[in-house]
């Protein structure tokens, strides 16, 4: 989806797939207003963009109570198909139409976040993920599974934001992305969703990481570790305490380190 940052190496593409499938499942009642064959194709994921757009142009008689929900469903489905076709600007426009129809649409916000990730507008995408997460109480039967997908996508997006800053040599951007990642982590832990947070980039399977990004990924991982330390001296204190258990009382640790550093090594 991205041009210079392969989002698939963080598993973000699979997460976006999961968000799409779960979002459609929220519209059971509205789906009953769709003709049988098209309804079945929407449900099994085989409906085409042309079919959805053609139906959107029709004005079939629809129960007023379901009209807004059906429009939201069709716009969201159209948007996901546009994402699949890599027509990301159009997908973003469609998500905005869905949100104009219903500003509190969780699925509209997740669609918007997916389009923005594809456009590598990671800061805005994180804001959209945040909005979707704030509206998780609207998710009905999927209040358990869908927030997990949102957290996973949001954390992956934040990591890509940080990686983007590293690649472009923009330290403020890199730090903003990592700080967003840590904020997502705090949210997840508070709601017992810590396992849904994407792993730092260093834990990605090596074969999925392009060689030219190895250094950037290692730097991203270091930033995550450093910025996650609330008290920079905590780690040093713990290490000192552990070493002191076995360290000889009459030997200077500093002298020992210098001795090892200056020692000639056979090569």
Explain the overall architecture:
With 267 residues, the chain is mainly α. It has a single domain (7-231), classed as Alpha Horseshoe (Serine Threonine Protein Phosphatase 5, Tetratricopeptide repeat). It has helices spanning 12-24, 28-31, 36-44, 49-57, 64-84, 88-101, 106-118, 122-134, 145-167, 171-190, 214-227, 234-244, 253-262. α5 (64-84) packs antiparallel against α6 (88-101) and α9 crosses α11 (214-227). It is elongated. The two termini are 46 Å apart. The mean pLDDT is 78.
Structural class: mainly alpha
Radius of gyration: 24 Å
Report the β-strand fraction as a percent range: under 5%
Q: What distance separates the N and C termini? A: 46 Å
Please identify the top-level CATH class. Mainly Alpha
The CATH topology corresponds to Serine Threonine Protein Phosphatase 5, Tetratricopeptide repeat
**Mind telling me which CATH architecture this is?**
Alpha Horseshoe
Global mean pLDDT: 78
Shape: elongated
Tell me the total number of β-strands. 0
State the domain count: 1
Main beta sheet: none
Helices, by number, come to 13
The SSE order reads HHHHHHHHHHHHH
Q: CATH-wise, what's the superfamily?
A: Tetratricopeptide repeat domain
Poorly predicted runs of 5 or more residues: none
Oligomer category = single chain
Q: What helical percentage do the residues reach?
A: 55-70%
What is the gist of this entry?
With 267 residues, this protein is mainly alpha-helical. Helix content is 65%, strand content 0%.
Main attributes?
267 residues, mainly alpha, Serine Threonine Protein Phosphatase 5, Tetratricopeptide repeat, 0% strand
